[in-house]
Design goal:
About 80% of the residues lie in helices and about 0% in strands. The protein has a domain of about 190 residues. By secondary structure, the protein is an all-alpha fold.
């Protein structure tokens, strides 16, 4: 039975999980991104770039609660050391009020927004989807309760269930020729199931109430994270806003495809490790002797998957588009390649942000995010008039240039030398680069001689084989656990 007096905790069923937290996070991200990609593979040829461009514009205005409010409030609830039930009820109430206000504002200004982008259909879509902020805002309390106990199973289950439910609805409506409304209801169903399943699985009493002392305590942690997440959200959404104004929904749809592939890489390769490391790094607050080694291991583990995905996918992208999409999407090939290559510096951004958050340096993460955002906005505003490719190239270069900021913060406030950040990533980056060159050479030699689908399969297989061999040679300590699991090396 749920107690009204004790702090909420994740359900007892989750404690029985034998899988590690990182495994659950990785499983949810791999399923969500993999299933989403398969769904997109069916929907994209049927709906075309414009439909996805319209939904991208909608999320420019409605995605704030998912990008900022939920993440900041969840992090605040995780950061409070002595938590009680009023922390959860206060945060739920504050989130609901803010989200409801945002939803009403979007509903009221739907027509002016649609006129701004010269897309009349956008007004009705905005009105229907204006309920999303309130739905999303209700997830922070059970989300935080589960994370505090390192119980990631409920979080994984809610992602699996909501992604599947929303995907099925979206697919059915797509094949029934509902057009962009298939994507609208896909998003609606996904969010509703997401929140419902999470409240069902996590043992947190749903309460509405407000305590000013509890809110002020939470705000101390939430404010820097809200700044950080607002900057991250702005860095993602304001470029879409600008590109939509200059280039229209069709070109924005091409950019959204490239961004989706870019996001898949980040969610699969970086987010699981970041979600766990952000909490585990707290172990070094009082004893930092082991922090440099932990950071080194984190960056290598992140790069181990991120680098080959970025370089390998960029190499096979032209063949993938031939197999997957029709001519309407051909303009997205170079855009996708650029954004994939631009994802590699995020290993340093994510890894060092986890370290700084673990040390309760939320303000530094907020400063970093602010700089990243303004740099991105300036870059897009300057280069968008030159076309989609020029703007995307500038966006891709930005994280590489600005990676110096979190590196400097980590060196000054955590005692981590800048050279160790680069050194930690160098071996896996070299392995991925050599793999990419090998795949590109194979693609060049076989192009036009075999069918695109066969060529794509051969390139992927060759890339996996080359990279695995190089990791065994260049970074044997990282390869050892996998060789043991495969029975190729004694434990």
């Amino acid at each position: 039975m749920k107690s009204a007096d004790n702090p909420p905790t994740a359900g007892a069923a989750t404690r029985a999980s034998a899988l590690s937290p990182a495994t659950w996070v990785a499983a949810q991200n791999i399923f969500a991104q993999g299933f989403g990609l398969l769904l997109f593979a069916v929907q994209a040829p049927l709906l075309g770039p414009r439909a996805f461009g319209l939904i991208t514009l909608v999320m420019v205005f409605l995605g704030f609660c998912e990008w900022v409010l939920e993440i900041a409030s969840t992090d605040a609830l995780v950061s409070v050391r002595n938590i009680d039930a009023q922390h959860y009820s206060t945060m739920t109430t504050a989130n609901a009020l803010f989200a409801a206000t945002l939803g009403v504002a979007v509903f009221a200004f739907a027509h002016p927004i649609a006129n701004l982008f010269r897309e009349p259909e956008l007004a009705e879509i905005l009105r229907w989807m204006s309920a999303l902020p309130l739905i999303t805002a209700l997830a922070s309390a059970p989300n935080a309760a589960s994370r505090r106990e390192m119980q990631f199973k409920p979080l994984a289950i809610r992602v699996l269930a909501s992604t599947l439910a929303g995907g099925i609805v979206g697919l059915l409506l797509t094949v029934m020729h509902f057009g962009v409304w298939a994507l609208v209801w896909q998003a609606m169903v996904q969010r509703i199931v997401n929140v419902s399943v999470l409240w069902r699985l996590v043992d947190v009493p749903f309460r509405i109430g407000f305590s000013r002392p509890h809110f002020l305590e939470l705000w101390r942690y939430a404010a820097p994270m809200m700044i950080s997440q607002t900057m991250s959200w702005s860095a993602s959404q304001i470029p879409r806003f600008i590109l939509g104004l200059f280039l229209g929904a069709g070109e924005l749809g091409l950019f959204s495809l490239a961004s989706r592939i870019h996001e898949i890489v980040l969610q699969v390769a970086l987010s699981p490790a970041f979600a766990v490391a952000r909490i585990r790094m707290r172990d070094y607050i009082d004893d930092r002797a082991g922090l440099p080694a932990a950071m080194n291991q984190l960056l290598r583990q992140m790069g181990l998957l991120c680098f080959p995905l970025c370089i390998g996918c960029a190499a096979v992208m032209p063949v993938l588009f031939k197999v997957w999409l029709d001519a309407r999407w051909s303009g997205g090939v170079v855009v996708a390649q650029l954004l994939l290559l631009g994802a590699m510096p995020y290993v340093a951004h994510y890894g060092l942000s986890a370290v700084l958050l673990g040390m309760n340096r939320q303000s530094l993460v907020a400063v970093n995010s602010t700089v990243q955002t303004f740099a991105t906005i300036v870059v897009v505003f300057v280069f968008a008039p030159l076309g989609l490719t020029a703007a995307t190239a500038a966006i891709a270069l930005r994280p590489l240039v600005t990676a110096a900021i979190p590196i400097a913060f980590a060196q000054r406030h955590c005692g981590i030398p800048a050279r160790s950040v680069i050194r930690a990533q160098a071996p896996v980056f070299c392995a991925a680069l050599l793999m990419g060159l090998g795949v590109y050479a194979l693609e060049w030699s076989l192009a036009g001689r075999v069918a695109p689908a066969i060529l794509l399969t051969a390139l992927i297989a060759a890339g996996v084989a080359i990279y695995a061999g190089l990791i065994v040679l260049l970074v044997p300590e990282l390869a050892a656990p996998y060789l043991v699991r495969l029975g190729l090396r004694p434990a």
